[in-house]
Specification:
homodimer, Rossmann fold, alpha/beta, 20 helices, seven-stranded mixed β-sheet, six-stranded parallel β-sheet, 38% helix
Chain lengths: 513, 513
């Protein structure tokens, strides 16, 4: 076998099953190995940002890494924004980059660049392979690094000769398991804080937002009166009927500060101190008030669910009476606005849906409207790098072929990685995309006002407008093989959602707001 | 005024007239300054790779930098691939990135990343602004760095407070001029080499491929018998009737080596030693044979045109009799293939056209077919980072509103940055896009065979195919406000080209090969 085959064999032996790829010449041996070594599904994307965002969505839903296969520094660079989101989500990804053969680097050929400098800002682990013989072990090390808590992006740079040189057969190496790190030290002190009279909240992240962690958190809340919160932007939360309601910290720092000022204690559970998304003049970027003491039950590197369960035991929290029956808003009628769009989605989303929310300003009302829907997963824009929604939904659908995926998508960010629709069509993925077409970067209109530019001039208006010409999302979807429909009322949105969700394969609905 | 206004004022004072932008919250003060300070045209793109590629195309045609305005590390990252191409082209660009206010960096907010690490691989100059007061001077320094020979990308990172803090009025500073660096040292030695009997070639780059340099190079060739060559991928060449024919070094290293083995001397003129685009087993990446001696007349940092003129004087080269009358191939008929597509384009392209060639394997025959067309400019894919063509054509059209621009574009690379079409529609740019729709990454089929994968398996076939589903480029163009037509014969291609070129504004033709 050659090094490339050893790489794929190690990945397969480590449980990696999917490779989202946009390869070039320096990856040809790895492309060949995807056929000669069984066990890895190759999924082509037409832009690298789709590949990396799909790996993020896949990893969030499969709880294990996908591999990405990208072409040298510039190909990797096209995937950086969504690797940034994966890093912030803590999603395990094995990012493989083919490079020139080592002896060719000194020639500074046109595609040569400093790949390490590009990769480190989004990676927890970067390694340049030295020999073909070491490549299978390097791959296993990368997979172990990617999935070790706190999981993230491991980047493996494979020079040409390491892919094509021969190595001994049976050189594959499985990555070792990543045992959870216990978080016992703080349980007693947190229990004492929660047993006091001062108002407290748990800020949940990571495994704290999955069913097991949430059930334990609900017992803690029932025993102590603590309020359950999450960060504004969430990698993945399991929610709906049978699971406790969690309030998101609001987006703008003044509102976040208002909410948190109700509490004397904020206990961090699998996440870190919340901060302002952006800094504004006269603020310092913190949102936790001076009077609110911070405590950590478990860091993102530790076994969050076990820590919550131990805390619930210590507080003798019984299983809370959760609302076991689902309830949804009534199907809305009339004009489309953020409220009616969110209600329409919540009114029809199927049991077991996966909802990827990159709907930006249009998306805010959906969270509350859907809190008691049938059980579903909700994925958020973790790193603020827009263009995550369509790729992430694509990867989630690859990970969960039996579940309906809904891409709840703003138009401005949707345009970043619209090539995702083609991969959905090719793979026959059951993704329903709702484009919230308000035809502007509406958040920037808000931010202009916050920056004291309350009367934007013509250039500021132009730079925040998607009108003139209006995007025709139905045509864009058709161009990539996805059937679409445009709607202008809530009734039509409900009807088209029901139709799209009833049919297999991808669909797109342009909701004109 | 505030720092952002000082930045724009400095840029305007330095002759920078256009800002290709996709801004976010951290750029709002600079967006506001584009209205409050007159003189800079803001052009919105719907993806950062369009903004940076447009700045590259603009810079190549305007011979001065445009500004790009991008959002933090991830927004910049989306533009890296085309900044890589600009770096390889030596195009002057002022890349401005808004960052969090300095005091917010320690909070590690979601969009925080190591911008310097991302920027250095594509920049000749990177500076993080320290205070609002220094910002106007920093901008002038960046512009001077961008346009100094060898020109390239200057990256200016602007923390929030440097944009919004007040500074004294009239703080704008114009960038100093960048006088050319004489290249006199090698003229005598090169003249002696060319006066000998051994066969020699001039490898022209930079200003050596512009009319003044080419006319001098033609005199040198006429006096000495030297052959005129260029690199395979060219930033910009002025060519057609009245200018000497230049042969490109072939793409594959064996063919390049074959060509160069005819010469005992290769004189580098504003470029560097040609090397293999990719390294293959058993090669060393060099394409200049041992028996061919390398000499440098002028480096890319030096005054190439003056050096060529001095050399022509020294050799007493009279003005050669150039073919002053244009000649074109006849309009082709029949099936579409690389030959007939290239002939169709050459048969109809208008006088003064700007042709951006990212047509990949389909593009090769066009170069020879168009050599005696009426005078035109030809732009190439300089850094190998695909997705350059549509943005670069967009920027060229902004730089040259009175000239027709033709984007000669492969389908695979076209999908990388298709959002360019929307900016063309919004700005009413006279760009005719020809999509060469062979529905595969054909170069990778060739490269698979070169990698001894002559019978690609199903996954390798899938990863190199754009069929299933076929892209409908006419629908994609319609979705972004650009009228389009699909053609399947050479006659229809000629007719649609004539129609598109006769009408103002953008058009797209999908040529199904």
């Amino acid at each position: 076998m050659n090094g490339a085959e050893g790489l794929i064999a190690s990945a397969v032996a480590s449980g990696v099953e999917v490779c989202f790829a946009n390869p070039g010449t320096t990856e040809m041996q790895m492309v060949g190995a995807l056929d000669s070594v069984p066990g890895m599904r190759a999924v082509l994307t037409l832009f690298e940002g789709v590949a990396t965002g799909a790996a993020d969505g896949y990893g969030r839903m499969a709880d294990k890494p996908a591999m990405t296969l990208l072409h040298l520094g510039p190909g990797h660079a096209n995937g950086i924004a969504n690797l940034h989101n994966a890093r912030r989500a803590g999603t395990p990804v094995l990012a493989v980059i083919g490079d020139h053969p080592t002896w060719h680097l000194q020639n500074d050929a046109p595609l040569t660049s400093d790949i390490e400098s590009l990769a480190w800002p989004v990676s927890k682990w970067v390694r340049r392979v030295q020999t073909a013989k070491s490549l299978p072990g390097d791959a296993a090390d990368g997979i172990a690094a990617a999935r070790a808590l706190r999981s993230g992006v491991a980047t493996l740079i494979v020079p040409g000769e390491c892919a094509w040189d021969a190595i001994p057969d049976a050189a594959a190496r499985a990555a070792p398991p990543s045992p959870p790190v216990p978080a016992d030290a703080a349980i007693e002190s947190v229990a004492q804080i929660l047993s006091g009279d001062a108002p407290a909240a748990l800020l949940l992240g990571g495994a704290g937002l999955r069913a097991r962690g949430l059930r334990a958190a609900a017992r803690v809340a029932a025993a102590s009166g603590a309020v359950l919160l999450s960060d504004t932007f969430i990698s993945r939360v399991e929610r709906g009927a049978g699971l406790p309601e969690v309030a998101k910290i609001p987006y703008f720092p003044e509102q976040a500060n208002d909410l948190l000022s109700r509490f004397a204690h904020l206990v961090l559970v699998g996440t870190v101190e919340p901060v302002a998304f952006f800094g504004y003049p006269g603020q310092d970027g913190r949102v936790v008030p001076e009077g609110c003491a911070l405590h950590a039950l478990a860091t993102p590197d530790e076994d969050v669910a076990a820590a919550l369960e131990a805390l619930a035991e210590r507080l003798r929290g019984a299983a809370p009476v959760a609302a076991a029956s689902a309830s949804r808003p009534a199907a809305p009628q009339g004009a489309l606005d953020p409220g009616s769009v969110g209600a329409a989605l919540a009114a029809v989303q199927p049991d077991g849906a996966i909802v990827m929310d990159e709907a930006a300003t249009t998306g805010f009302p959906y969270w509350v409207a859907s809190s008691a829907c049938p059980p579903h997963d909700y994925l958020g824009l973790t790193g603020g790098a827009i263009g995550q929604g369509l790729p992430c939904a694509t990867g989630a659908a690859v990970a969960c072929p039996d579940r309906p995926v809904i891409a709840f998508q703003a138009d401005g960010s949707g345009m970043y990685t619209l090539q995702s629709l083609w991969t959905q069509a090719r793979e026959g993925l059951d993704v329903t995309t709702v484009i919230c077409a308000n035809r502007e970067y509406r958040i920037l209109r808000v931010e202009l006002a916050r920056a004291d530019i309350s009367q934007p001039g013509p250039q500021a208006q132009s730079l925040t407008s998607l009108a003139d010409p209006a995007l025709d999302w139905v045509a864009l979807a058709k161009g990539m093989g996805v059937p679409g429909a445009a709607v202008e009322t809530a009734e039509d949105l409900v009807r088209e959602l029901q139709r799209a969700l009833a049919e297999p394969g991808p669909h797109l609905i342009e909701a004109r707001i």
